[in-house]
Design brief:
Elements: H1 9-27, H2 31-54, H3 60-79, H4 82-85, H5 89-112, H6 122-151, H7 160-185, H8 193-202, H9 208-212
C-alpha cells in the first residue's frame, strides 16, 4: 500500500474537494454533478491502485499531474463549465494529457523490455509510445461521445470540429511525449526526459537490463 507521504499534497486536496462536492451534490439532489464528481474521484484513485497492484512507484509529479488533469477535465470543465468560459481550456488539457500519455506509453514499452535499450531501437519505442498515446486520446473521444449520448452532457461541444481539433492536439502532445523518450534513450535531456529519469530511478528493479548496461547509456546504439 502507498503511504501517505507517497501521495502529493495536491492529490489530497483534489480528493477532499471532490468528496465535499459529491456530498453537496447529493444533498441538493443534483444527480448529474454526483455522477461527474464520483467519476472524477474514481479516476484520481486509479493511479494509486495501479501502483499498489503492480508494485510500481510513480513520481509525485506524475500523480499530482494526473489528479490535476482529471480535476480540470471533469470537475472544473463540466461542473463549473470552464470549457465554455475559456476557449483555451480544452486545448490545454488535451495537449498536457497527450504529452503524459506519450511518456506513459514509452515507459510501459520500455518496462516490458526490462530497460533493455538494445532490444528495440529508440525510434521503434518512440513510435509505439506515440501510437499508444493516440489510442488513449481516441478512446477519450469515444468516452466523451458516450457521455453526451447517454447522460445528455456536452463534452464534445461543437461535435465533429471539436473532436478533430482534440485529435490534432493529442497528436502533437503525443509526439512531444514520445520524442522525450527517444532523446532520453539517446542520452540527451529534452522535453520531459526528467520525468522519465525519475520513474526509472524509482523502479530500478524493473529496469535490470538498463542497470547492467548503464555505462553505455550515453552512447548511441
Amino acid at each position: 500500500m502507498l503511504q501517505s507521504n507517497d501521495i502529493p499534497y495536491l492529490t489530497w486536496a483534489v480528493w477532499i474537494i471532490l468528496t465535499a462536492a459529491t456530498l453537496f451534490a447529493l444533498v441538493t439532489a443534483h444527480w448529474s454533478n454526483v455522477f461527474v464528481t464520483v467519476t472524477a474521484l474514481f479516476l484520481t484513485l486509479l493511479p494509486n491502485v495501479f501502483s499498489d497492484r503492480f508494485q510500481i512507484r510513480l513520481p509525485l509529479t506524475f500523480l499530482a499531474a494526473m489528479s490535476l488533469f482529471v480535476f480540470g477535465t471533469l470537475f472544473l470543465g463540466e461542473v463549473f463549465d470552464f470549457y465554455e468560459r475559456f476557449w483555451w481550456w480544452d486545448v490545454l488539457l488535451h495537449a498536457s494529457s497527450a504529452v503524459g500519455f506519450g511518456i506513459i506509453g514509452f515507459l510501459f514499452v520500455f518496462y516490458l523490455f526490462q530497460g533493455d535499450r538494445f532490444a528495440a531501437p529508440p525510434i521503434a519505442l518512440a513510435t509505439i509510445a506515440f501510437a499508444l498515446a493516440i489510442t488513449i486520446g481516441t478512446l477519450w473521444e469515444i468516452f466523451e461521445f458516450a457521455m453526451d449520448q447517454i447522460f445528455g452532457l456536452n463534452m464534445q461541444k461543437s461535435g465533429l470540429v471539436d473532436t478533430m481539433w482534440d485529435l490534432i492536439v493529442d497528436s502533437l502532445g503525443a509526439l512531444l511525449g514520445a520524442a522525450s523518450g527517444f532523446f532520453w534513450l539517446k542520452g540527451r535531456q529534452a522535453g520531459f526526459s526528467g520525468m522519465i529519469e525519475e520513474f526509472v530511478q524509482l523502479n530500478r528493479t524493473g529496469f535490470q537490463k538498463l542497470a547492467e548496461r548503464s555505462p553505455a547509456r550515453n552512447k548511441d546504439p
